[in-house]
Amino acid sequence: MANISFKTISLSNSTTTTTNAARLGELAFSTIPKIIETPAAMLYVRSGVVPDVTYDLIPDNVTRLLEIPLGSLVESMRNLENMGSYGNFARIKYPIYCPFHDSLVELRSGGSGNIYSSVWTKSGRQELNIDRFKKLIQLIQPTIYETMFDGDTPIDKTTDKRFNKDRERSRRFLENSLNEQTISSNIIIPLVGGHDKRQRQLYLNDIHHLISNNEKKIFGISFEGFHAYGPLTENININSLKSFIEETRTKLIDYKNLLFTMPLLWRPDNVIHGIDLGFDLFSGAYVTYISDRFIILTFKYNDKISSNTIDTEYNINSKQYANGKQSLLLNCNCYSCKNYTQAYIYHLIQTKELLGRTLITIHNLYHYHAFFEQIRESLKTNTWNEYRIMILKQYSIEQQQQQQQ
């Protein structure tokens, strides 16, 4: 696996008067010359390709850290074995982050056992025992990866017995990865325990010695077990998880260069709350999710944007845009907005031309990652509080309008 490092950058107190957790960081990879700054969104990839877009059409401002869920590759194991590795199979040159579950795919209960856990794919549940998981990681050769875990802890439906199984199985899976020499580096540890604060802290206590004894192998922490992934996570209340996350960070205060992440469909207002809580790396699946529904991002991520709508987004697949002579978003510098009108993209959707989805995805990728650029800039220039208020106000106004309708 590639050599990588992560370090946090201290911020002045004036930047974080609202919270002490927001931070800047730097990801360095031996395989690429450019340092990736955090907070950052990854580039969501499914089975080797970015949905609806070829790599040469991806906007330049998009972070080149690929988020490739393990479930999207399980059914390709035979092909991977024939090619020797996933990199050879997909001809990918960028670093890969491999989460165990796919943020876009809702999970169902009952997929875990004492020696296996399951991922869900388009063709249904795929069971992974420890040996099969190790083999898949060896074939993919991800730069960073999340270990197997249980995490089957639905809110208000989990007994103490189920919590204990969750913890025991997840610890066993983690210990197996750490003890396997060929896949024991650059690990993201899943923290489990559902919405039970006591159970989450018990699990952290269970594995604390593993963290302290394997600092060179463990790269970060992923907060898991809060939800079942899928579309419902777009509207999750991040602030309801604040006490869980803050208590964990307090217990890990000595490990300043651990990267923190959480799998969600990260809507922009939730991104702001996530950064307040100290998250560094965000799933990029939100762009794929909204683009599949023909949603165009229009929220103001800086003062230079002159939107042709007062909303944070709109659906281009609406008759009102059939004769739209404007671009998807005024003054946007993405390829789609500089070259095509709303009417043309609406026409492409109506005629089911794939180019329509491509142009929508290009815009949303550009817009979403430009948002993260502005986040990092505000942290660097001590204007984070003002910036966060600007974003949250836009989503607050939209939610109030929806409630009044």
CATH superfamily of the largest domain: Queuine tRNA-ribosyltransferase-like
Which architecture of the largest domain per CATH? Answer: Alpha-Beta Barrel
How many domains, as an integer?
A: 2
Strand portion: 15-25%
Any idea what the shape is? globular
Query: What is the CA-CA span between the terminal residues?
Result: 53 Å
CATH hierarchy class name of the largest domain: Alpha Beta
H/E topology pattern: EEEEEEHHEEEHEHEHEHEHEHEEHHHH
Mean pLDDT: 91
**Rg, please?**
21 Å
Task: Please give a quick description of this structure.
The protein is of the alpha/beta class. The protein has 12 helices and 16 strands.
What would your notes on this structure say?
Its main location: cytoplasm. The chain is α/β, with parallel strands linked by helices and 405 residues long. It has 2 domains: 4-291, Queuine tRNA-ribosyltransferase-like (TIM Barrel); 294-404, no CATH class. It has helices at residues 77-83, 86-90, 130-140, 160-179, 197-213, 242-251, 268-276, 285-292, 335-339, 342-350, 354-380, 384-404; strands at 4-9, 24-29, 36-38, 40-41, 43-44, 66-67, 96-98, 116-121, 124-129, 144-146, 187-191, 218-223, 259-262, 281-282, 295-297, 313-315. The strands form 4 sheets. Strands 4-14-13-12-11-10-7-6-5 form a 9-stranded parallel β-sheet. Strand 13, helix 7 and strand 14 (281-282) form a beta-alpha-beta unit. The termini are far apart. 44% of the residues are buried.
